[in-house]
Each structure stands twice: as structure tokens, then as C-alpha cells.
Specification:
- By secondary structure, the chain is α/β, with parallel strands linked by helices.
- The chain has two domains: 243 residues, Peroxisomal Thiolase, Chain A, domain 1, CATH 3.40.47; 145 residues, Thiolase/Chalcone synthase (Peroxisomal Thiolase, Chain A, domain 1).
- 32% of the residues lie in helices and 21% in strands.
- A hairpin with a 3-residue loop joins β2 and β3.
- α3 crosses α6, α7 crosses α13 and α10 packs across α11.
């Protein structure tokens, strides 16, 4: 089914840069997903002691000097690594393009908490004397910091900003990049989402107070979406940024095209601070399908948002049954079972893990799904073992967040 937009409005992915708790490029990340390799482990954090988390160990010095790392932020470092990797993967030479026509759009769940906690702790060692407060604090904590650090590092002079959209932020970064390309505001978009959330004790403490922080004797089995014994979220860091281009531009330079974004949608529950609303989630999914001119049964792989909270998983499953109930060819998986919840990075990182299915036909599984919660019963959940399909044409990613922000992306196999 061909998109209804003109060729100049067709937006394609030409590069992927990522870091995840179980891989620091798409090839290694994909290998871990197909082999069932978790990236969750024990992690020490201030005041909380030992918790479970997904930790990224990418090469911080590949694109930054030690002085730059000291002055900047962990969020900025993750963003720079992913953006640089995405540009390299796309085969783009920054020295040969007009960097005033490049836009940087990075989704975040939150930003600045890590730096503020660290500064408060630091001055607590000096009887709270504020003269010991870092003069780097303001640029470290402004909301545009992650995207801003990318522009400084890569000498990009086009527009940049971060998109605060809770756990829907990764998808929202991509949507923003797509829209700016369609408007003609930029010719290349670096778009996606990142998270450094595990470096703030507050996120662990808050989920713990809610009774929503995962616990398990084996860290690799702690993240258990849809499983009857799930008991909460595993907080994780990570990032994934795509290079996005208009189709004619990508074809003109002979780019390898990873996939074409053919559908997207975002809406709001207007229901609760935390608890999702299935009716609005279903509406968001249907709107993305409508924009792509697709029927529910056209989707081959659906990557569910499910975070392994009791009610959150159930609410999403209600929405999925509403839209996809009875469909026998839509295969559902979940990436958080491997890496935990990477917050602002979740949308793009989880989508990226499925994109190679256009080439190899494998649907990576949901691991740790030993006993399906009856309230999460869905057709065709791929559990514990990869599923081989004859062909994959459409992949959907769901990402939902606090205050009922919903986002959906649909990517199509690209054929010249």
C-alpha cells in the first residue's frame, strides 16, 4: 500500500546510533535481543544502596575529551555518542554538508535531576555552603542541554531543542524531526530520545514509594512485562537517535535506507497523573494507522510499551485487544524485558531493535514471560523464543507516558 504523501514529504531513516544496556550499536543490540541476553544488573545508587538497573557502558571518549565530559552531563554524553553514531551509520560527512540545515530533536523524560542531586549532596559535605555550588550548574540543567551539547560537539548551527514527553519522548523526538523536514525547515534531522535517569536516586526512590520498583533475586529476570509475577519497573539509561531525510535527498546521495516512517500519532488521556486510559491509547493507535492508510492486520510486528507494572500492562492490553483483537498475523513483542525501561529513549531504542526484521524476518521475543497474566492475554505474543516470519513489511512501536501522553510510530520496509 503506497503512502498518500508526495515524494518530497516521504521521510526515511538512513542511520541509527544507539547505546543500550545490552549493546552499543544496532548489530550488537539486535544480536542480544535474538539471543535472549538481558542487560539488567545490580547497581549502587546514593541513599538507596543496591538496586536493579540497565547500565550503558559505551565508549565515552570516542567523541569527547575528558574535559568536555567533566563540564557536560551524562545526558549530553549519551546524546553525542548516539548522534555521532547515527551520522556515521548514514555515511554522512559533516564537513561536506550545510550544518545550518541540520536540526537536532531529542526526547527526554526529565533532565537536570541528576545534576541538582549531585550539587546538593556536594554542598552537604560543606555544611551547605553555596560557594561550593558548581558554576556549570545552569548550562547543565537547562532543558535544551542534551540537544545543545550535540550541536556544540558537532558544530551544528541549525535548530535544536529537547522534547519533554515523559516515556513517549523518543517517539516524539522522531515525530518532531519528521515534521520539520516536511515543513522544509531542515534538510537533515537527528531525532530520537535519551535517558540518564539511573544516575538520580530520586527516580528509584519514587518508584519504590509507589510500590512499582522491580525486585528479583536474579537481575536478568527482574523486568517481566505481561508475566503474572511482574512487580514493577527496572529503571535504565540509554539512547537512540536516527538520521532522518526526505526520500529524494536520501536517494540523491545513494543512502542505504533502513525504513520509511509512514504513520505516527500522539494524543492525551486527560485522565490521571499515572494510570493510563485504554480508550485514548486505542485512539492513538488507530490515528497512526489512519495516517499510514493501513488496517490493523497490516502490522507485522507490534512492539508494546508494557513496563511490567501491574495496572499499566493491563490497561495497554485492553487497548491492544480493542484494536487488534482477533488478528492472527500481528506479532507482539516487548523490549523492556531485556533492558528495563529506558524512559525517554524507550520509543526509538525499542523500535530500533525491531528494524532489522525487515531484512532477516525474525521477531525478537519477550523474555521472562513464564506465566502470562490472564488480564494481559493477547493474540500472538512472542514469548522467550524468536519467531521467524516469511516477510516483515510494517513495524509499529507504542510509547506511552505519565500524564497520559501517548505516541505511536509505524515504519515500513523500504523498497526502491
Amino acid at each position: 500500500m503506497e503512502p498518500r504523501v508526495s515524494p518530497e514529504q516521504r521521510i526515511v531513516i538512513t542511520g541509527v546510533g544507539l547505546t543500550a544496556p545490552n549493546g552499543h550499536n544496532l548489530k550488537d543490540f539486535r544480536k542480544s535481543l535474538l539471543e535472549g541476553k538481558s542487560g539488567v544488573r545490580k547497581f549502587e545508587t546514593r541513599y538507596m544502596g543496591e538496586v536493579l538497573a540497565g547500565v550503558c557502558e559505551f565508549d565515552e571518549l570516542r567523541y569527547q575529551k575528558k574535559k568536555e565530559l567533566r563540564r557536560g552531563t551524562r545526558a549530553g554524553s549519551v546524546s553525542i555518542y548516539c548522534a555521532r553514531e547515527a551520522v556515521a551509520d548514514a555515511g554522512i560527512d559533516l564537513e561536506k554538508i550545510d550544518r545550518s540545515r541540520v536540526g537536532v530533536y531529542i526526547g527526554v523524560t526529565e533532565h537536570g535531576n541528576v545534576e541538582t542531586e549531585n550539587e546538593v549532596y556536594n554542598i552537604s559535605q560543606y555544611d551547605y555552603d553555596v560557594k561550593f555550588w558548581s558554576h556549570h550548574h545552569n548550562p547543565r540543567t537547562v532543558a535544551n542541554n542534551p540537544a545543545g551539547e550535540v550541536t556544540l560537539n558537532m558544530k551544528i548551527t541549525g535548530p535544536h531543542y529537547t522534547i519533554g514527553a515523559a516515556c513517549a519522548a523518543g517517539n516524539m523526538g522522531v515525530i518532531q524531526g519528521l515534521q520539520m523536514l516536511r515543513l522544509g525547515e531542515v534538510d537533515l534531522a537527528l531525532a530520537g530520545g535519551i535517558s540518564e535517569s539511573i544516575h538520580t536516586f530520586g527516580i528509584f526512590a519514587s518508584f519504590n514509594s509507589e510500590g512499582a520498583l522491580a525486585k528479583h533475586g536474579d537481575p536478568t529476570k527482574a523486568s517481566r512485562p505481561f508475566d503474572i509475577k511482574r512487580n514493577g519497573i527496572v529503571c535504565s539509561e540509554g539512547g537512540c537517535i536516527y538520521t532522518l531525510e526526505r526520500l529524494p535527498d536520501a536517494k540523491k546521495r545513494g543512502a542505504q535506507i533502513v525504513g520509511e516512517i509512514v504513520g505516527y500519532a500522539t494524543n492525551s488521556d486527560a485522565h490521571d497523573f499515572i494510570l493510563p486510559e485504554p480508550v485514548r491509547q486505542a485512539e492513538c493507535i488507530r490515528l497512526a494507522l489512519k495516517k499510514a492508510d493501513l488496517k490493523p492486520g497490516d502490522i507485522d510486528i507490534l512492539n508494546a510499551h508494557a513496563t511490567a507494572t501491574k495496572l499499566g500492562d493491563i490497561q495497554e492490553c485492553i487497548a491492544l485487544r480493542d484494536v487488534f483483537g482477533g488478528e492472527k498475523t500481528v506479532w507482539i513483542n516487548n523490549t523492556k524485558s531485556f533492558i528495563g525501561h529506558t524512559m525517554g529513549a524507550a520509543g526509538t531504542l525499542e523500535l530500533a531493535g525491531n528494524l532489522p526484521a525487515f531484512e532477516d524476518g525474525w521477531v525478537h521475543p519477550t523474555i521472562n514471560l513464564d506465566e502470562l497474566d490472564p488480564d494481559c492475554a493477547l493474540e500472538n505474543i512472542v514469548a522467550n523464543t524468536p519467531k521467524k516470519l516469511d516477510r516483515v513489511d510494517y513495524i509499529m512501536n507504542n510509547s506511552f507516558g505519565m500524564f497520559g501522553i501517548n505516541s505511536v510510530l509505524i515504519v515500513k520496509r523500504f523498497e526502491a
